[in-house]
Amino acid sequence: MYIFKSKEELQKHLAAFSKGKTIGFTPTMGALHLGHMHLIEQSNLKCDISICSIFVNPTQFNNPNDLAKYPNTLTTDLEMLENVKCDIVYNPPVNDLYVKGEKAKSYDFGSLTTILEGEFRPGHFNGMATIIQKLLNIINPTIAFFGQKDLQQLYIVKNLAKQMKSDTYIEGVETVRGKSGLAKSSRNKLLSENAKKEASLIYNCLNYCENNKAIGVTKLKSHIQKEFLKNENFTLEYAEFVALKTMLPIKDWEAVNQSAVCISAYHSGVRLIDNIIL
Ligand code: PAF
Asked: With a threshold of 0.85, does the pTM exceed it?
C-alpha cells in the first residue's frame, strides 16, 4: 500500500501506474470503521486501483468543538486499509489542499440543502463540496464511493459531479450496521457501551417506519417523537420524511418518488444521524 502526503506525489504515481486502469476512490475523514471497509471492498470489486483519502476537512465543520473532538486513529486506519487491500492512501496536511485562510466555496444545490443537515449544520455542505471538488479534480476517479448513511451528502455529491461536468460516477453504498442496528459511524467511538446500546433506538424507529408504512407519515413521525421523549439521554434534532431526489419534506407517500426517513439525534453530546429508504 502506497501512502502519499502530497497531491504532487500522488498524481506522479497515478500518471506512471494508472494508464488504462479504472480508479475507485473513497474519501474519508479517518476514524475508519466497517462501513468504510465496505466502501473499499466495493471499490476493489469494481475498479483496478482503490484509493482512500484520509483528511479531516476543516471547512465542513460548522462547530469548532466538533472538529476538535473528531477522533483521530491514523495508525489503526492504515492497518485496516492494508488488511482490506486498499492500494493507495492519500493523507495530506491541510496546506496541501487549502491555501492559508481559504474558505469554502459557495454552491447552489437547490432544494437538496434546504432542510435536514443543511438546516442544522449551516455551511457544512459548502465545505464538504469544496473538498470533494478538489479531491475529484486531483484524482479523477472512475467511480467515487459514498455511504448511504449520509444520504443528503450522497445526493449533493451526485449533483456536484454534474455541475463539475465530471466523468466520475458517484456510487451510493448501503449502510453497515452493528448487531443492535446502530449504523457504523466514526462518531460511535465517542459513545460509551451503554450509549451504544441505547443508540439502537434510532434504528428501531427507522425499522418501525419500514414495517408500518401504511399508517402514514404523520403518525410515523409522532411515533418517533414519542419514542425519543421516553429516553432522557437522547435529544431528537429532526425526524423527517423526504423525497429522495429533492430531499424536500413529504406529508404523504409520493407514488412517483422514492422516499426516505432521516433522523438526527444527540446522545450524551454526540450527534448521530441515520436513515432508511422506504
Ligand atoms: O463523509 C465524510 O466522511 C466526509 O463528509 C467526506 C465525504 C470525506 C468529505 O470530507
From this structure: yes
